[in-house]
Amino acid sequence: MIGQAAQDYLKVIYKLQKGREPRTSVNTSTIAEQMDVAAASTTNMVKKLAEMKLLQHTPYQGVKLTDAGEKIALEIIRHHRLLELYLSEALGYGWDEVDAEADRLEHVISEEFEDRIDKMLGHPTIDPHGDPIPTKDGNIAKGDYWQLSQVESGQTVVIRQVNDQSSEMLRYLESLGLKPKVTVEVLDRAPFNGPLQVRVGEGKEVALGLEVADQVYVVPP
Length: 221
Prior knowledge:
SH3 type barrels; two-stranded antiparallel sheet
C-alpha cells in the first residue's frame, strides 16, 4: 500500500479533476496550492506517482490519474465520507467538524472497520454534506447539479450538496437551514450581482450573497 502522503495527493488530484470523464489535466502549481506545500515537493511526488503508474504526467500540461490511481483515490474518499457520516450520526460531531477528523482517520482504518461502518449506517450513498460515497467496487454517482446562484426568480429547487471546504461557511449555512434535502424557493434576484432573496423550507426568508449561494448545489424538486 502506498504511503499517506501519496494517498493525499491522489485524492486531491481526483477532486481537482472533479471526477470528470474523460479526465482533465491538473497543473502541478494548483496541486501544490491545494496541498499547501512547496512546488518542488509536488514535483517530486508527481514523479514518484508517475513511476508507480498511478498518474500520467505531461510536461507543461499537467497530470491525470490512471485507472489505478483513481481506484486508490476513490477508496480513500470512500473511507473519508463514511467516517464523516459515522462521526456525525453516531458520535454527534457537527457537520463543520467531521472533515478534519475524517482526514486524520481515513488512512488508518481497516477494510473490516470500513465494512462495519457501512453496514451500521445502512449502506449510505451520501455523506453529511451531500457528497456521493463511492461504492466498495469503486463506482461513484455523478451529480448534475446547479449552483443556487444560477437559479432564476420564481423557481423552487432542492439542495443536494454543499461545499464542505470551509467550516465557517458550513456553520453559516446550517444557521440558515441550508442543508441537503431542504427545499429552497428563489423569491427575487437583486440586479448587478446583488443578493438572492430565498425562502428556506416552509417559510424562513433570508438574503444570500452570491458567494454563499455559489456553495450550495441544487436540483429541480
